[in-house]
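Before relying on records like the one below, remember that each one covers exactly one chain. Contacts with other chains, cofactors or solvent are not represented anywhere in the record.
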Amino acid sequence: MTFSSRTARLLVDGRPVAEVVVADTVLSRARGLLFRRELPEGLLLRPCSSVHGAWMRTSLDVALLTRGMSVRDVRVLRPWRATVPRPGVVQILEAPVGSFERWGLRPGSHLALQTR
């Protein structure tokens, strides 16, 4: 059983901000950020409409994204909490708390990935 995933450069409104792990398989999405010794700069879960913080020790920045990678909403997900699925949300970006503020990511931002 493998949790393989790939990485890509995340752009926020055309600006490169972070290296993110793209979890786009059933197993890589199921693993998410669980059991990682170090958090990546970001984790993009696709397809995904909601996330939970079960077994997490720290809060996360969470962005709810459309298919075209427009940010519908941002929030801080605390341990043992969950987001509620929303119409049009098909991807979710998770990052350590404070990342979105540093990146200038907010509702209405447009995200893109650069692959290597």
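The domain at 6-114 is CATH 2.60.120.1140 (Jelly Rolls).
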